[in-house]
Amino acid sequence: MANALAGRGATTPGTPAAQKAAHGFPWKALLPVVVAGAIALFPAPEGLAQHAWYFFAIFAGVIVGLMLEPLPGAAIGLIGVVLVTVLSPYVLFGQEELAKAGFKPATASLSWALSGFSNSTVWLIFAAFMFALGYEKSGLGKRIALLLVKAMGKRTLTLGYAVTIADVLLAPFTPSNTARSGGTIYPVIRNLPALYGSKPNDPSSRRVGGYLMWTAIAATTVTSSMFVTGMAPNLLAVEMASKTAGVAISWTDWFVAFAPVGAALLLVLPLAVYFLYPPQVKSGDEVPTWAGAELAKLGGLTLREIELAVLVLLALTLWIFGGAVINATTVAMAVIVLMVLLRVVSWDDILANKAAWNTLVWFATLVALADGLNRVGFVKWFADTVGAQMAGFPPTMAMLLLVAVFFFTHYLFASITAHVTAMLPVMLAVGMGIPGLDVRTFALLLVLTLGIMGILTPYATGPSPVYFGSGYIPAKDYWRLGAIFGVIFFVALLAIGLPWLAIIG
Predict the structure, then answer these.
(1) Quick one: which of 203, 200, 74 has its CA closest to 136?
(2) Average pLDDT for residues 79-96, to the nearest whole number?
(3) Which residue, of 60, 200, 267, 399, has the fewest CB within 10 Å?
(4) By CB neighbour count within 10 A (0-12 exposed, 13-18 middle, 19+ buried), where does 472 fall?
């Protein structure tokens, strides 16, 4: 069946064409260096320390490298971190800052370089890969995938809506989009593409896999903006809006403010992806019929499937109801341990999961680099500079420009929590200083962007590296789609959300 569904024209590994595609052209390796070097040659802008400017130069080079991928993303991130660490007295820290803190450059820079590996979201992303491994090894993922295909597989579009609905149902009760999408939805849907002859890191990935994976990550970014409990940074943002601007935002306030935008986006999302990133397999009765026959061959649930189902339900219950008692990452790591103890997966299986370890290194290095931008003062300088340029603009225009800056500067962050911490208080303070600006509307617009900005890059929010690491969305496609859907989401927020906020006051 898989052969009947397989696409033609695939590049065979080992051929000159495949080697050329894998290694890329020399300019892809040179351009990140040229960009970093060119920026570094310019003097630091007024108000910004020279070492902060050097850090930004390296960060910009890393981002260009991630977009072009002359090397795997994890290797590029590691190169950036190591380069900053080696040059730390000139890049990461100013001599005065080090003297005041009482640190030696080598000690301080190494602590910073390894800081990303202690980030809880990084390990939650890693755990999502392990959950997916459990679904695969136990056979439960295949069973659920076959059930979905049998029920809704006549049309790829209906599968897209099924994925979206699943995220909507979980979002109000799961304040970790990594746990919700990366740890619950992704491990199931990753089993679907193979049933249609769609393979990762292969031209056949566009048959079904690319469509399903992009629909899933896009859906979870929308639901993360729809509910204040749909993503942990939302709760932090509410607290900051209250303390900085005196704007109180309840669960209901948040939901009502975003509901028209969210409903419109979720209604058209699978269809929009269907046209902008179309699957090659769109419909057919053959696959659902085959899925029914395969289910009959599987027979009843096995002990391993039952064990994994219990562990997943336990994790989901704790993610939903146990947030005040136990951290989401702690839950995920505990489930991994139980999977090993119950032999759902073996330790060798975990060690052999290259995608998980690769993503761990990749995301940890990006978290450290993004933290460095804030640490050297670049983020504050940037926000202050933007604020100074707002003088003389009409209040509404100034508000829209500030929201746009807040949204699109997420290209500089590998964590929405870091973005909230670094940028939200500064942006609120800038807005409060503009005469005639409606501070409550401004605060709501800022916080409502937090989920949807996660669509922009492969590192923008917790589940992003999981879907990017699936192998079904090539880097160039991810960056292109991220920009397209980022603009769509942002325009929808302004076109629908701003008039709605004016109506509800």
Answers:
(1) 200
(2) 79
(3) 267
(4) buried
| Residue 283 backbone dihedrals phi, psi, to 5 degrees | -165, 170
Cβ neighbors of 13 (< 8 A, separation 6 or more) are none
Look at the block and give the residue holding tokens 């073996």. 346
Q: What is the pLDDT of residues 213-229, one digit of tens each?
A: 999 999 999 999 999 88
Helix axes 251-276, 439-452, angle to 10 degrees: 40
Give percent helix, percent strand, percent coil of the chain, each to the nearest 5: 75, 0, 25
Full-model pTM? 0.73
Give the pLDDT confidence score for residue 96 in this predicted structure: 60
pLDDT of 19 higher than 50:
no
| Cross-strand pairs, 155 | 283
Q: Name the helix (H) or strand (E) containing 202.
A: none
Single-letter code of the amino acid located at 40? A
Distance CA 194, CA 145 (A): 10
Residue 100, pLDDT > 70, answer no
**CA–CA separation, 83 and 92 (whole Å):** 10
Distance of alpha carbon 492 from alpha carbon 90, whole angstroms: 43
Q: What is the pLDDT of residue 11?
A: 35
Residue 106 C-alpha from the chain's centroid: 32
Measured distance CA(209)–CA(189) in Å, rounded: 9
What's the one-letter identity of residue 84? Answer: V
Comparing CA positions, the residue from 385, 395, 389 lying closest to residue 435 is: 395
